[in-house]
Amino acid sequence: MMRIFSSYRTEIAIAVAIVVLELALGILVPNALTFGNISDIAQASAPLIIMAVGVLLVVITGGIDLSVGSIFSLTGMVTGLAMNSGYNSVLSTILGLLVGVVFGGINGFLVTFVGLAPFVVTLITYAVAASLAFIVTNGHSLPINDQNYYLLNGGTLIPGVPNFVLFCVVLVIVTEFVLRRVVAGRWVYAIGSSTNAARLLGIPVHRIRFSVYVVSGLCASFASVLSVSYISNAEGTAGEAMMLQAIAAVVIGGASLFGGTGSAFGALLGALMITVIQNGVNLIGINSFWQGSVTGLVILVAVLIDRVSKARR
Amino acid sequence: MADKGFLLDARGITKSYGPTHVLRGMDFAVAPGEVHAFLGGNGAGKSTLLKIVADVVNRDGGTLNFDGHSVDEPQGAAARARGLAIVHQELAVLPHLTVAENIELPHYHRGLALFDRRAADRTALSALALIDRDFAEHAAHRLVGDLSLHEQQMVEIARALKSGARLLLLDEPTTNLTAGEAQRLFAVLRRLVSETEIGVVFVSHRMREIRQVADVCTIIRDGVAAVHRKPVTELTDADIVELMGQASALTETPVGGELPAAVSAAHVDAPRLKIEGLGFPVEVGGGAILGLAGAPAGPQALIDLLIGAAPLPGVVIRIGDHPQGYRSPREAVRDKVGFVSGDRANRGMLSALPIIDNMLASRRIVERRVLVSGKEAAQARSLLSALSIKASSYWALPSSLSGGTQQKLIIARWLQLQPRMLVLEEPTRGVDIGTKRDIYALIRVMAQAGTTIVWWSTEQTELVELCDTVLGFGPDGRATQLLHGAEITEERLAEATGMAA
Known about the structure:
The structure holds two protein chains of two kinds.
Chain A: H1 2-7, H2 9-28, H3 35-60, H4 68-84, H5 89-112, H6 118-135, E1 142-143, H7 147-154, H8 163-181, H9 183-193, H10 195-200, H11 205-231, E2 233-234, H12 242-252, H13 264-284, H14 291-312
Antiparallel strand pairs in A: 1-2
Helix pairs in contact in A: 2-13, 3-8, 3-11, 3-12, 3-13, 4-5, 4-6, 4-11, 4-12, 5-6, 5-11, 7-11, 8-9, 9-11, 12-13, 12-14, 13-14
Chain B: E1 8-17, E2 20-30, E3 35-40, H1 46-53, E4 61-66, E5 69-70, H2 74-83, E6 84-87, H3 99-104, H4 117-129, H5 133-139, H6 149-162, E7 167-171, H7 179-196, E8 199-203, H8 207-213, E9 216-221, E10 224-231, H9 237-243, H10 247-251, E11 273-276, E12 282-284, E13 289-293, H11 297-306, E14 316-319, H12 329-334, E15 337-340, H13 344-348, H14 355-366, H15 375-386, H16 403-412, E16 421-425, H17 433-448, E17 452-456, H18 460-466, E18 469-473, E19 479-484, H19 490-497
Parallel strand pairs in B: 3-8, 3-9, 6-7, 7-8, 13-17, 13-18, 15-16, 16-17
Antiparallel strand pairs in B: 1-2, 1-4, 4-5, 9-10, 11-12, 11-14, 18-19
Helix pairs in contact in B: 4-5, 4-6, 16-17
């Protein structure tokens, strides 16, 4: 019990902060704590959580993935286009997910086997995917009218639990388990801790590094198909703001951009935190242009707390 | 004995980097049940051969057999992959992972397997207990990044000992260990070798260690074996040094003489250095060499204080008109207090910058330079030729120089700056005997010019030979004794530092 407490210190602190924030909001704005608003927050945070978990894996290895926002946009357009061209919803979803796998694969290949810097590589794929997202429909958004497709997000595979909640919970728990207990997960940390040492110890650095970029792309695409399923509309700019939010979520959740640290629970809580702030800013009635500044301030506070607690140890 | 009896059998290995022939038909063979000292000067090709054996670098020619099978064939390659464990000179540890994970993780080959924490803890405990029982008891769950350098080294050695390998390659494994830990390591190695018939390759520059632990030796010189598998007892220290091609290093007196006359340091009027709060007063005059002896904790804290890197509660230093010491290394450097880190790769060299920038790094700060001056080229050239360093150009990267030469270069940063004090952290770690002598001479020259030298070393012979005063620290990091002049003997040092000599 003590060990769980000490190894999840950051995560517990964020969870407490979120609860405090939400309660404070409840005092300021009466309907903040209604079931409706809380399920809105859950719905809004689901894509971000999924995307953040993917980015987390890359960040733990000491890399960065700037392309996830564009992959999100492009996936939505590809899925929407496929459906509007008469493909069924399952096939369209798979086509959408392929976008993430392909772009993640390109990222992983260029970083791992060509040896380019992750920042540069994913900056390139970010730009390319963002422009492709406009090219596919010449900039038009795509409405989607398919009741089956809506079930991907809102249906209930387990009675009483909407699918988007289920997906988030399962993804976070599985990822956390893999990171903590499965050898490949420990390898992810090992690479971020010291790539050179990991290589000397015989850890398959290339394979793992390539894989995390593919998984990151896939998560971004999965986040997108869920989001499109809910909104019933695909737009070329849908993921524009999400890349920075996903990285912010990972950092708030205790991951270091130098690699070697971070957890899936942390990424989940970081994403929730960002969504709660956005929701709060809306509810209080502050001009939504302030959202970015408030989020920035929260990241600063989170990183400072982390810094101070590490210095004291 | 047939060649098949060797665990590792390398014949006629060749390797060139561009026009430089590093290995020119090197032979190296290790039998089971022996500790094999592998000796050679810096740049003789030692580390290249080790890298070829470890499959980090490909060889150009020659045959390499592991357990009787060529490593070019699947059987030999598999035998090597299974049977070889290496302790690298540069530590290969994973700082964000626990001690247990660092020891066990390399033995998992399937990514989808579950990592068994309990088993890992048990293995780590028993492996570490071979070297240090106390450390083993409380270490398994700690993050390696929170450990000191010598604890990390123990983790790395424990990993190799527990790997089940049949051939252990230890590349200067004792550099970060205290004398007591090194003794325990040797005992473990001797026991393992006699009980399990493994082979151990031991690389060290410390003659005494070689005598203690090794049965046979191979000496490499200019890329070929000068001595191939000879019992250590058949060679005297002088033989070994001569075979390594460094005979001159032993006969020449270490005082000044053997450096080119061009190496000189302008006279300095260094103030007296006083240290208060250690339990007894420490005071040395300008031009004295103050040695620091003992386990890393104590000397490192004092060094951090001296160079302004970190405060040390309760301890006050006075360096001339600076009664409080320095608040930052920059302030110290501007006041002409120099520092040579023991961690050359990470804290000494600016590895991405050419030699000239590395040489003039301190001068630019001391002289508060704003622009890179045209005079620098001349200064760099004269320093290089004064030290007789052969560099293709001062625009080359420092990695083109051998480790020992890099170390000379870092010390030489301060040569013409008239430093008031020069603080050195193990400046001779991992350098060969010839270079060691050069470094001693460099430091003597500076001391004679009036610079106060503070020198931490874990090699006691070095302290005895060079220091005027030695401050001893116990294993707990507390200052124990101050020894002067003739009192500085290996016995007294062992007593002061609580280590077996």
